[in-house]
Amino acid sequence: MAVVEVKDNVYWVGAVDWQSRYFHGVIYTTHRGTTYNAYLVIGEKYKALIDTVYTPFSEVLVSHLKELVDPTEIDYVVVNHVEIDHLGALPRVMELCPQAKIFCSQRATWPIKKHFGERGWDMTVVGTGDVLDLGGKTIQFIEAPMLHWPDSMFSYIPEDRLLLPNDAFGQHLASSGRFDDEVDNAILMDEAAKYYANILLPFSSLVDRKLKEIAKLGIEIDTIAPSHGVIWRKDPNQIITAYQSWANGLETPGRVFPEVVVVFDTMWGSTEKMAEAISDELSRQGLRVSLYNIGKSDDSDIIREVLEAKAVIVGSSTINNAMLPSLSPFLYGLVGLKPKGKMGAAFGSHGWRGGAVPQIAAMLADAGMELVGDGLAIQWVPDAADLEASRDLARQVASILASQG
Ligand code: FEO
After folding, report:
1. Which residues line ligand 1 (CB under 6 A)?
2. Rounded to an integer, what distance in angstroms lies between the CA atom of residue 86 and that of residue 15?
3. What is the distance in A from the centroid of ligand 1 to the CA of 83?
């Protein structure tokens, strides 16, 4: 992949990882790969590299830098975030330009040393309001703690109205094009939603606050260059508007999403029958529904749908007085992500003794969801009355959603 000019004398010099299929261990599937974006800014006097790449791609970054400059002449390296997918190539870069000054947030200094040891690098702490003058181009820094780590920082080049927000506004999407107008927009927004749901969702109130702060700072943005995926140049407002919706639990303009997500696992098919009755009734009530058997599904894809859904209904058989363990990653994920403004409901069938339904209900409540009823637990194989009770749960959810408009 060649270097790409983003703005006059601002270049993408990162790496495309076509083969990535998991992120953050195995909890986030990256079906479409990812990119690690780094940017070289060439001023009249000085050159600055903004972020690096994941360690295995260090030489890709170096070869990209060499296409443009002599890397020994890089004057500054901006570390917007200390997660290894952006920090990993820092030692290789600093090997080439040991005299370069590193600019980072206060909270980034300690993790940089913990990652790489005491290297004697010249580190300058910057915060909101600080400016690095490259000659004809300036880099302004904006602290962005918890978007998504305490050390996170945005960089902004006012001369180009270019925001470099590191992980924010990213997507795990490998592509030959580097810009939003070079990929399918539906795929792009789906990956952006999955990224927000799985990474930024717990920090939604801070996302909302940061968007307002940026508006207050009067920062004009015509391009957003994140650290993963494509660069928003055609319509940066599309992703800003989506973030405003996702951060506030509102409908995202232009997107059609399931309103209710039903997730289940089943031992011998009884809970499955209930799940099918519930989802069938929800759709008869005019709602858009997704139905997932957790054992055949991808948790992080379901989480993406939860982001834009209004209700989540989860069912399980009971084993050893508890829910089936297959549901644990999904439910613990929800507890950590705490999606805003969702309704939750639990259901399931058990044999001699139950336990799954109250356990699921408790976890949905822990995730911040407003519960519909105490949960629907039935015994053995659902008969006509049990299936009607399942449909009734669906009707209750539909009725509450209708009353909310
Ligand atoms: Fe893309 Fe938080 O690293």
Report:
1. 81, 83, 85-86, 148, 167, 227-228
2. 11
3. 5
The yes-or-no answer on residue 181 being catalytic is no
Q: Which residue has 């990956």 as its token pair?
A: 191
Asked if the peptide bond before residue 148 counts as cis, ω within 30 degrees of 0, the response is yes
Would residue 195 show up in a list of annotated catalytic residues for this protein?
A: yes
- Condensed to tens digits (0 to 9), the pLDDT of residues 306-359 reads 999 999 999 999 999 999 999 999 999 999 999 989 999 999 999 999 999 999
Clarify whether 115 is annotated catalytic: no
Rounded Cα gap, residues 83 and 102, in angstroms: 16
CATH number of 260-403: 3.40.50.360
- The CA radius of gyration of the chain, in Å to the nearest whole number, is 24
Domain ranges in the chain are: 4-247, 260-403
- Fold observed for domain 4-247: Metallo-beta-lactamase; Chain A (3.60.15)
C-alpha 180/C-alpha 345 separation (Å) is: 38
Condensed to tens digits (0 to 9), the pLDDT of residues 106-124 reads 999 999 999 999 999 999 9
Give Cα 70 distance to the centre of its chain.
35
